[in-house]
Design brief:
It is built from 2 helices and 11 strands, in the order αβββαββββββββ. By secondary structure, it is mainly β.
């Protein structure tokens, strides 16, 4: 079973049962799901160990000094809490660790993607209301 299907199965099982918190960790990936009372939606936190990849190109090092926030699952991305509200993450805005950056709707469940660390948004790489794929780049950011 590939990683995307395994992740989808884990989230499905979590949402269908009365669990309130779940942590899953492998060497370079950590997933924590938690949900409060029935009124609140589950919050999804993800931490990834950054592994530098070098192509040997000096231009690559100078152009790409930031980091990327990627989709944790397949679904529809929402950049704001409501259609008429301000976006969670705006270019140039400082976002604190744990703050919501976007919401990804999957199987009628709204999953908040939270900042894994304090950061500044450098680029928004997705469009509000559009489908995103697992591991697709959503934001280019810089650590604070």
């Amino acid at each position: 079973m590939d990683a995307q299907k395994r992740l989808h199965e884990i989230i499905t099982q979590f949402s269908e049962h009365s669990l309130t918190e779940l942590e899953f960790e492998i060497p370079d990936f950590k997933l924590r799901l938690s949900k409060g009372e029935a009124k609140s939606e589950p919050r999804v936190y993800i931490e990834r160990e950054e592994i530098p990849v070098s192509t040997g190109d000096k231009a690559d090092k100078t152009e790409k000094n930031g980091e990327e926030i990627r989709a944790i699952l397949v679904g529809t991305v929402y950049l704001a809490p409501a259609p008429d509200a301000e976006d969670f993450a705006v270019i140039g805005k400082r976002v604190a660790k744990g703050d919501t950056m976007c919401i990804i709707e999957a199987m009628k469940i709204m999953n908040e993607l939270c900042a894994p660390y304090d950061l500044i948004v450098k680029n928004v790489c997705c469009q509000n209301g559009k489908m995103v794929q697992f591991d697709e780049v959503l934001f280019e950011v810089e650590r604070c």
